[in-house]
Amino acid sequence: MACETERLRVVQAEAEVARLEERLSDLQEMCGAIDDPVGNEECDKQLQELEQTVGLAISRMDRARTALRNCEAPAPVPPRTLTTTGLLAFLRVHDSGGFGDPATGDFIDGEVAFGLEPTSVGLEPRCREFGFQLRNDDRGPAHQGMLDLLRDAFVNELSVRVDYQQDSLPDGTPKQHSKPFRITVLRGL
After folding, report:
1. Regarding beta strands 112-116 and 88-93, do their DSSP bridges make them parallel or antiparallel, or are they unpaired?
2. Nearest-angstrom CA–CA distance, 62 and 54
3. Could you tell me the fold of the domain covering 80-186?
């Protein structure tokens, strides 16, 4: 019953619009029957004012409906900050574009993709791949540094710690593809 106020506003707005549209229809019919030019002019003025009132009421009704839709929509699941540690299973760099499933929204627009061995510590079961962009923007130097660390870790078989945000799909299911914000190379693990 969290959206009762919004539902009530929609019902009231719809009733107001229906009442005003009926009044407008009656006034149009009445104005059509007037033969007197002065009376016709006065009636046209009343029609214009009522049409404006109907327009405002429709606008209020649309806002009430939008508020109700927003209230009834499931709340987005905030991203979780997670950490996992393990050996790299793969490291891939490719042309601009991305990877994942754009149809479901489980997609990363990026040129670098990597994954950790399934035995990694703290790895969420659904998080299979990580990725980020290599673009000439404000994050470019940090992302290039992360790629360099990943290459070193891959070549030297070193463990990495990945700090990342795990977003969720609209139904709350965690995405399989996440964006790291910190890469740490570890020795001796």
Report:
1. antiparallel
2. 12
3. OB fold (Dihydrolipoamide Acetyltransferase, E2P) (2.40.50)
- CB 108, CB 98: distance < 8 Å: yes
User: Tokens 């030019």 appear where?
Assistant: 37
H-helix or E-strand containing 183? Answer: strand 177-186
| Per-residue pLDDT tens listing for the chain (189 residues) | 678 999 999 999 999 999 999 999 998 888 888 888 777 888 888 989 999 999 999 999 999 999 998 888 877 667 788 888 888 988 989 887 777 777 787 878 889 999 888 666 665 555 568 999 998 899 889 999 999 999 999 999 999 999 998 888 877 788 888 889 999 999 876
Nearest to 148 by CA among 165, 168, 134, 163: 134
- String of DSSP letters for 10-55: HHHHHHHHHHHHHHHHHHHHHHHT---HHHHHHHHHHHHHHHHHHH
The torsion angles phi and psi of 33, rounded to 5 degrees, stand at: -90, -5
Task: Tell me the two tokens of residue 60.
Answer: 């209020």
Spatial distance between the Cα atoms of 142 and 134, rounded to a whole number of angstroms: 9
SS3 56: helix
The H-or-E segment that residue 120 falls in is: none
In three-state secondary structure terms, 175 is coil
